[in-house]
Amino acid sequence: MTTTSNQHKIAILGGGNMGVALAKGLVKSGKYAGNQITITRRNIRALQDLVVQGFTITDNNSQAVREADIVVIAVLPQQLDGLLDSIRDEVNAASHLLISVVSGVSVNDITNRLDKQVQVVRAMPNTAIAIQESMTCLASNNATKENLALVKELFDTVGETIEIHEELMTSATALCACGIAFFLRSIRAASQGGTEIGFHAAEALHMAAQTAKGAAALLLATGNHPEGEIDKVTSPKGCTIAGLNEMEHAGFSSAMIKGIRLSAIKAGDLYVKSN
Ligand SMILES: NC(=O)C1=CN([C@@H]2O[C@H](COP(=O)(O)OP(=O)(O)OC[C@H]3O[C@@H](n4cnc5c(N)ncnc54)[C@H](OP(=O)(O)O)[C@@H]3O)[C@@H](O)[C@H]2O)C=CC1
Ligand SMILES: O=C(O)[C@@H]1CCC=N1
């Protein structure tokens, strides 16, 4: 495939949280139209709202694969083998490009299950894909440079992309895909603190979220190290260092590090091959 990605027909197999967020993000980017994208799931009633946005919805994976050239696999790891078994006859190694967002499943796992040397690119986005702010990690051991570039172009429309070695995909899952939940929980915790010191819940949440956005934007815009930016906030004998040290005594950094390590281990164990 050498043409640009927005000329392709895309089938997203598994219209759950990630599949739908991807579909919406692609259309929101303005580079894809709803009518280029088919979304499947077994309970298609849950996708009914998407029809008005121009998406095709169906529970027929085989037909969706037949009519697409880019096939995104977005089911849970424990649902993968059943799905692959059901589309095996439709997958054409010469004409299809597979993109898998399934955590803990390697390119080889997919080609072995399909028993076809189809090109597979693994993509690990996060849910900010719905607003074009994903950090998406990409890896493949069998896709051509052109097809990797095609997938990069597709995910570049919905955030930032980085190409990594496939063995780091489980780490990327923990840091970026699970990571968004870790940062969301810290914002929630900050807002709870904010309410305890005088703000209504909604305003505390808004203030905490904008503060977190500012912190991330500072690092991305300047390239500065977080500790350098923290040093600018912590006045001697001041209230910031008092709060920060209290958090560290309670294990703040350690909790984040341990959580990310456990997530990465778990991400590597999510897929158990079925017979
Ligand atoms: N959520 C996230 O933030 C991220 C998730 N991922 C990965 O993306 C994948 C999907 O996760 P997520 O969206 O959260 O999970 P969901 O459970 O929300 O979505 C999975 C979807 O797959 C559908 N499905 C299951 N079996 C089939 C089938 N045979 N044919 C068609 N559709 C099917 C389910 O619907 P139904 O039961 O109606 O068929 C469901 O809607 C996972 O592998 C996860 O590891 C990766 C990065 C981030
Ligand atoms: O929690 C999970 O297993 C999935 C993978 C990454 C984000 N959600």
Give structural notes.
An 8-stranded mixed β-sheet has the order 3-2-1-4-5-6-7-8, with helices on both faces. Helix 6 crosses helix 11 (252-268) and helix 7 crosses helix 8. The protein has 11 helices and 8 strands. It has helices spanning 17-28, 61-66, 77-87, 107-114, 145-156, 169-177, 179-196, 201-222, 226-233, 239-249, 252-268, and strands at 10-13, 37-40, 56-58, 70-73, 97-100, 119-124, 134-139, 159-163. It has 2 domains: 5-165, NAD(P)-binding Rossmann-like Domain (Rossmann fold, 3-Layer(aba) Sandwich); 179-268, ProC C-terminal domain-like (ProC C-terminal domain-like fold, Orthogonal Bundle), CATH 1.10.3730. The longest helix is centred in the C-terminal third of the chain and has 22 residues, at 201-222. Helix content is 49%, strand content 13%. Strand 7, helix 5 (145-156) and strand 8 form a beta-alpha-beta unit. The chain binds NADPH dihydro-nicotinamide-adenine-dinucleotide phosphate and (2S)-3,4-dihydro-2H-pyrrole-2-carboxylic acid (A1CAB).
Fourth CATH level, the homologous superfamily of the largest domain: NAD(P)-binding Rossmann-like Domain
The pLDDT mean sits at 96
- Major pleated sheet: 8 strands, mixed
Number of domains: 2
Taking the alpha carbons of the first and last residues, their distance comes to: 33 Å
- What helical percentage do the residues reach? 40-55%
Strand order of the largest sheet: 3-2-1-4-5-6-7-8
- What string gives the helices and strands in order? EHEEHEHEHEEHEHHHHHH
CATH-derived topology of the largest domain: Rossmann fold
Q: Please work out how many helical segments DSSP would assign.
A: 11
Ligand inventory: NADPH dihydro-nicotinamide-adenine-dinucleotide phosphate, (2S)-3,4-dihydro-2H-pyrrole-2-carboxylic acid
* CATH architecture assignment of the largest domain: 3-Layer(aba) Sandwich
Q: What would you report as the Rg, rounded to the nearest angstrom? A: 21 Å
Task: Give a count of the beta strands, DSSP E runs of length 2 or more.
Answer: 8
**Approximately how much beta-strand content do the residues carry?**
5-15%
What structural class results from the helix and strand content? alpha/beta
User: What is the CATH level 1 assignment of the largest domain?
Assistant: Alpha Beta
Q: Give unreliable regions as ranges.
A: none
Name the overall outline: elongated
Main location: cytoplasm
Binding site for NADP(+): 13-18, 74-77
Keywords: Amino-acid biosynthesis, Cytoplasm, NADP, Oxidoreductase, Proline biosynthesis
InterPro entries: 6-PGluconate_DH-like_C_sf (IPR008927), NAD(P)-bd_dom_sf (IPR036291), P5C_Rdtase_cat_N (IPR028939), P5CR_dimer (IPR029036), Pyrroline-COOH_reductase (IPR000304)
